[in-house]
Structures are given as C-alpha cells and as structure tokens.
C-alpha cells in the first residue's frame, strides 16, 4: 500500500494504519530532529509530539500537496517552537560512537562527522535546513519549498550557495570534504 492510500485510510477512520506511516517516517524524522535540537531525549519527545500532531491534524491535510512535505513542515515547526521556547539556537552535536570491532574506523568516522558538523555550523539556519532536508531526508525541491515556506527559486539558490560555501570552506581547511 502506498503512502497516499495509508493516509486516506487513516483519514477515513482506519487509525490502525497510522502505525505504518510512523514506521515509514520515524527514523528520518528522528534524524532531522536530533540534528536540529542536539539532544537525544528532547528529540524523542519532539518526534513523538510531531506524530501526535500529524495524527490529530491529518483531517487538515489536503491531498493536493506532498504528504512528505506536510509532515516535515509539522516536524520542523515543532523543532523551531522548542528552540524558541527554550531560547536556544541550533548548536554543535558530537557524533555518537557506533559499535565496531575496528577502533580505527570509529576514530575516522568520528573525525569525519566532526568535520562535517563544523562545516555545517558555517551555514545559517535556512541553508542548514535546505541541506538537511535535501540530503538527509531526500525531499524534492518542491517539498523543501513547502516545508520551509520559501520559493522554489530560493531553495535552488540556497542549496547551490550552501554547497559552494561548504566546498570553499572545506578546500581552505582541507579534510574529508574537499570533493563536495
């Protein structure tokens, strides 16, 4: 069953199908949220709150736009509401260490993630969100435009400028991301 069918069924009262929607999106939504709020427990709370809002607001979703974009708009708004409420900004997060039998791989992965985070910190919030939504969440330009409520042309420009900025900084500093 595709996502449109699942959404239609939930809207028609078959709420048990909502678990399929959550399972489909929860990992990518969590990745987005943790990269914005930088706290695991807070991210879990925001993800849960976001899915609750999605469920209770599903009747407002008109099948004219992308469900993907509609859902991420709720998620991003929840993140920014949290940051405003707690007077926070998007800040650096250390990458989590993964289980591996090769400590040198862990060290290289950690170093690479730190360099990427340092590069991403050079972007403003909108540039950061465009990169995040495009490359982590794999949203289309149209969906990013809808989520961030900016024009399609602004999405293209922000993405192009962000990549150029990251490439320029990376080339100056060296490191893993010179190929961007």
UniProtKB/TrEMBL annotation:
Keyword field: DNA-binding, Sigma factor, Transcription, Transcription regulation
InterPro entries noted in UniProt: RNA_pol_sigma-70-like (IPR039425), RNA_pol_sigma-70_dom (IPR014284), RNA_pol_sigma70_ECF_CS (IPR000838), RNA_pol_sigma70_r2 (IPR007627), RNA_pol_sigma70_r4_t2 (IPR013249), RNA_pol_sigma_r2 (IPR013325), RNA_pol_sigma_r3/r4-like (IPR013324), WH-like_DNA-bd_sf (IPR036388)
Span of domain RNA polymerase sigma-70 region: 21-87
Residues annotated as domain RNA polymerase sigma factor 70 region 4 type: 114-166
PROSITE patterns, per database record: SIGMA70_ECF
Family matches, as Pfam families: Sigma70_r2 (PF04542), Sigma70_r4_2 (PF08281)
UniProt key word Transcription: yes
PANTHER family: RNA POLYMERASE ECF-TYPE SIGMA FACTO, RNA POLYMERASE SIGMA FACTOR
Family: Belongs to the sigma-70 factor family. ECF subfamily.
Protein name as it appears in the record: RNA polymerase sigma factor
Annotated organism of origin: Solibacillus faecavium
């Amino acid at each position: 069953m595709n996502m449109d069918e699942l959404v239609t069924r939930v809207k028609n009262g078959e709420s048990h199908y909502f678990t399929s929607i959550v399972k489909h999106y929860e990992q990518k939504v969590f990745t987005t949220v943790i990269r914005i709020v930088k706290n695991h427990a807070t991210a879990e709370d925001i993800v849960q709150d976001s899915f609750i809002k999605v469920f209770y607001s599903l009747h407002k979703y008109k099948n004219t736009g992308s469900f993907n974009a509609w859902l991420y708009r709720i998620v991003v708004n929840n993140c920014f509401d949290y940051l405003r409420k707690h007077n926070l900004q998007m800040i650096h997060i250390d990458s989590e260490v993964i289980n591996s039998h090769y400590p040198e791989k862990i060290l290289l992965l950690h170093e690479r993630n730190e360099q990427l985070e340092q590069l991403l910190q050079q972007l403003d919030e909108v540039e950061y969100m465009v990169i995040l939504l495009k490359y982590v969440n794999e949203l289309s330009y149209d969906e990013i435009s809808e989520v961030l409520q900016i024009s399609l042309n602004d999405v293209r420009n922000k993405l192009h400028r962000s990549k150029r900025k990251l490439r320029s900084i990376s080339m100056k500093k060296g490191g893993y991301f010179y190929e961007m």
